[in-house]
Amino acid sequence: MSQLETTTVFAGVDGRSDTQLPDWYARQTSVDSTEAVSFAEAIRSLPRAVETAVAYYNPYRDEWVETSRFNALVEPSRLSSMDRKRPDIEPDGGVESTEYSVGSRGSDAAALFHIPTRSYSVINPVDAFGPLENVLRETTIDDRTLGDVVFGEIRQYRGGGEVHMDLMFDGLSVELPDRRDPITMGFCSGYDFFGGYAVYVEGFARDTTCANSIRSLTDRETIKHVGDIGDFEGWWADTLDQLELIANDLYAFITEAQEITVDFSKMPFSVEELYSLLGFPEYLSKRAASDAQANAADPFEIDFWTLHSGATYALTHFFTGKEGSALDGYVRTANDLLFNPKATLTTVEQVYERQAVSETTSDGKTGVASQVALAQIERVSADVRSKAASFEEREVLLRERLEHDHD
To answer: What's phi and psi for 80, nearest 5 deg?
Structure first.
């Protein structure tokens, strides 16, 4: 499992931006806010990849043979810091190949990222995010350019060959009734040089009260490392155009989810067990339940927004894995609590229907606890079904945000 290696906090699009981190974010980040750099500087400090020839060793002839089917993706600055180990016999075609060993920078600075086929197109950080800098400088919000209000963090894994970032915009937010602190809007993006992640973007928000990250607000939009990489500047412009609409969608989802509650005093399972039934591991279920009950007006009757917030709290602050498919799966489950309560309740109802069958006695009587649970779930389900159409229509629109004309 790859662990987080480097986190870079940024504020402002470039050195001309007089941008400070928002106070709430400076308090919550684990990185010293005085070390924040501009977005442009952060992007240019990321490792890049170039292609170089690949050869394989033939032990029967004690020689290296170059292949034209693949290219190696390597970090060029690391090649120059590596110690030459020994020159090899010239491979077929007369091209000299060389073995290297990592020098003083250590094994984490290994130059090789990946050996893809020749159809792979390298997209370096400046290729993808340099055009975003231009769009941020040209797009305004409340008479300020987005370049003056952008902030966030960039996280590196696997020697910088895998990168994920959160970009947010101070002032572009969701203001909830009876609540002082807003939810700040933005998007997640990233890529890798290992063939696992194309360059991607998806809607994102951060709850300023508790630093919960609300991920996967929209379906992930990608540009693959194949063929013509297309118009990144237009891609980013389309993305930013959708953020205000995504904020409006999120507001509507939250206010409606606050009106749908689960009465746990009538359920034969606890709040923690609800999260476990939905597939969260025990350590996350405990954290999610603790947060949801602490923030609920009534710890025994909790609305779906608060249940979602508990799940995002656990995932943001206590998830022990890395960004990838496992986290994505838990995020989808958490988001169903907010965007698709009906699906959440269907999952729980199916589990308890199976339990009811297993508890049925020989004379055909169903266990009392299961009867009570199913009745309560049915009551909540009826509330959800009455609003299901508005939830479903809004979710379709939300999922269509950021969809562009790229493969």
So the answer is: -70, -20
